[in-house]
Protein 1
Amino acid sequence: MRILNRQYRGMDKTTDVLSFPQVADFSLHESRFTRHDFVLGDIVISLQKAKRQAEENSVSLNEELKRLLIHGLLHLVGYDHEKSRYQKRKMEERERGLWTTL
């Protein structure tokens, strides 16, 4: 994860989840997304970091993996918590909403 984070984000540190979108500007309203067989991109999750975070937050590994998957998926569809406080709040709200539906 450290190597991927350094190579693709220029950050020389490990991370828990990375997303690699296949589509530059995602919009569900575009005709190319009316099919059910398109690829949003790839999500890479550090199992070691997920285990550590699950223990630190007193949650199961499955819960932590679910949280990281939701986080990565939101990045694939255009959310970016690093752009601004507003975007961070918006992404966190969406994460909570998805958490309760899964």
Note: The chain has one domain: 2-101.
Protein 2
Amino acid sequence: MKNRTPSEVLDEYLVLRGQAGEPEAFRLLVERWQPRLLAHAFRYTQSGDAARDVTQESWMAIVKGLSRLDDATRFRAWAYRIVANKARDWVRREQARRRAADGAPMPDIVDARAAAQDDMARIRDAVARLEPDQRLILSWFYLEDMSLREIAEALSIPTGTVKSRLFHARAALRASLTEDS
């Protein structure tokens, strides 16, 4: 077993106290995890309002299901999976709503920036053009520093599948950046 950080130990403790029904533990979990879950929802939806709605729905599911979480050390992956599922639902509803509203396929969520000079802007634009699942896996691996095992658990897929999806997401990002050159 890897050495856990004090932050991971605190999260585990708060989950266990939350499972015991302590309201203060729930409050502290929300305080600690709200920014991360909100950022995760935003990466998926590319909309601040949608990210807030998705995160709120996710917290309701987290609070309702916390007692059924068998291993408190798995909270991070479990919470991210809930947010990802809620965000996917939002994307599907939004695509259907836009198709119904104008009879055309949903335009890219991407707000492509014309001739970006800044390398970071180019990377952000290239990432935004990726499929939501590709953005998700790249953000979990690089921004959230999740291991392949944690991502596999969060997505309920084998670790080998995560490796494959990460490989393809990197290739898509590389191709997107090459198109910009």
Note: Confidence is low (pLDDT under 50) at residues 105-117.
Protein 3
Amino acid sequence: MPDGTSRLKTLDGQQIFHFMGCSTFAEYAVLASISLAKLNPEANPFTCCVLGCGIPTGWGAVMNNPNFHANSSVAVWGLGAVGLAVIQAAKAKGATRIYGIDINEKKFEIAKEFGATNCFNPKNGDTRAWLTSQEKWGINFTYDATGSVAVMREALEMAHRGFGESMVIGVAAAG
């Protein structure tokens, strides 16, 4: 919880700490109001559960950026739920070149289904060199969805010189 306490316990009384201000798999819990979202009672909990973090975070990072524009280039590091939502939103907003970057090539097919135009595995070469070969001066909008500080830096450095924007939406480990 924001105050450093926990209100959850195991059946034998052992305290359980929350992850990033919220937790799940509890029959009952006392939560801070900031950690709650009201759902329509008719909503299917088995399908709306994906709205918990990944989709609103990635989608919102694009849709809530007043500078995002059509015909732009986008690069996304990390092709999990957050990264895929970034790709989907970027395509919906008219991005024409969307680069997906991940070390798991099994994610490339779905990234392309969501709107990625090209994908790259950093284990197969230098991401900076690959992106520069695609976009000489850098990317209009870069998104880190990994939480890796090294990747955050790479995404920032690949933003277009002069006017590119870099969004860090992955959460790095404490410290």
Note: The radius of gyration is 18 Å.
